[in-house]
Structure formats: structure tokens, C-alpha cells
Fold:
Amino acid sequence: MRWRGRRTSSNVEDRRGSRMVRRAGGGGIGMIVLALVAIYFGVDPSVVLNQGGNILGNSAPPESGSYQPSAQEEELAAFVGVVLADTEATWNRIFSESGRQYREPKLVLFSGSVESACGMGQAAMGPFYCPGDMKAYIDLSFYQDLKHRHQAPGDFAQAYVIAHEIGHHVQNLLGISEKVQRARRQSTKSEANALSVKLELQADCLAGVWAHDADRARELLEQGDIEEGLRAASAIGDDRLQRQSRGYVTPDSFTHGSSAQRVRWFRIGLEKGNVNSCNTFDAAQI
Structure:
């Protein structure tokens, strides 16, 4: 990616080195939401739930620690800021053209654990978006997992992860996330999972819309970048993660879609470059 020397977003919130001080009590819906995020990356959700994390308001403010990021991590932080700025350029334009105003999200860098409006997030869960505070969260160590555990190296693979979480922000602003969550509460478990898959695949498609715009309008992409993004989408499909973690696959439990589905919808957004092409909820084929 041609990212060096480009604008960096002012919406990056750096909480690396902050140490969370927890009080007794907590848990609840926020932890369940974050446990579902853990499933996304093949992590046993009990890793999250057993932490006893608290809903916002049950924890003391974070304490600042003496955190010394490496030069490599600082470069990753700079990269994240550039990618976030580029997503802002895309979504500000698209929203403006449709007569809407885009509310830029914050992206929080953290190390180890972090407090969000959805509860306590852990690095083991990977990146996540919290609609309650309209912030995306990422521990930069995840990129090592993406490279080594998921065999999806490359800067565009890293950018895809950010663009996917910003896709969830777009869904939140458009009211899609709220509608889906309301429908999930009135559904059976398998039906709720199917709705979750469609929501996640739409976020993949929206990430593709950003990539299309970044390439056409700002020439951000280089040769091989698209392949990196597709490889990342494939690497974190539910079927692949389940097979890696437990040796078998149960499609009814999918919450993010199979590798093939994730690749397909990212490619649709990339090729069409149109938000209307990302309607996974009414699509004849998922």
C-alpha cells in the first residue's frame, strides 16, 4: 500500500499502557457481546467471560503505566492512523452524496485489555467495534496473529481488518445494526446466528467499497494488495477457524460466515464500489 506520507486521522485514541483497575461485580450483556467477538477469531469465549469484566461504570478509570512501544509497533500505529483517515475520506464522500452526514468514529489503540461501552475487551478477542460508544478497538499485537496464526501477512490485510470494523460503524449510523439486534432477540439461536452472519458479511462488503474508492480516488493500492485482502477474508472464516480450534465445523453456529462467503462479499464491494450492492439481507445467495 502507498500509505507513507499521507494524512493521519485525528480520531485515534491511544490507550496503550493504560492499566485497568477492576472492582467487584459486572458482566452482563456487554461481556456477552465481546464473547461473540472472541468466537469470531476462534477464541474460546470463556476466556472473556471468566475474566469477570465489568460493564462501563463498574470499573475504576485506567491507570497510566510506563509503556514503551517498539519502533515496529509505532510504525503500525502510524499505519492505522493513515488507514482510518482514508476510510474517513471514503465515507464522508459517500454519505455526503446521499444527503447524510458521516459521523467519524474513534479508533482506540490498547494493550492487553480495554474498557468500552460494551464491556471489558481483551487482546485475545481481536479487534472489535462497540456501537454504544461508536469506537473501534484494536490491540496491535493482533497483527502478529494475523500474520503467523492466520497466515495472512501484508499491510493491506491489516487495512482490511480496520475497514471491516469501520463497516460496522457505517451499519450503526444507518440503523442497520439496531434493526438486526432487535430481530435477533426475537429469533431462535440458529436464526439469530444467520442474521449475525449477514451483518458481518455486509461489513466485509463495505470494507470492499472502501478499497474500491481508495484505489480509484487516491491510488492507495499496489500490486498484490487485493490478494492480501482476500487472503485475510478467507483466513478468518468461521469454517476455517472452527476447524483449526476444534477439528470440525458446525455451520449453524456460524456468526461471521464461511471463508468463501467472506471472500465473495469483500470482492463484491471491491468490484462494485457501491453500498447498494452490499445488501446481504435480501441477497438470493449468501
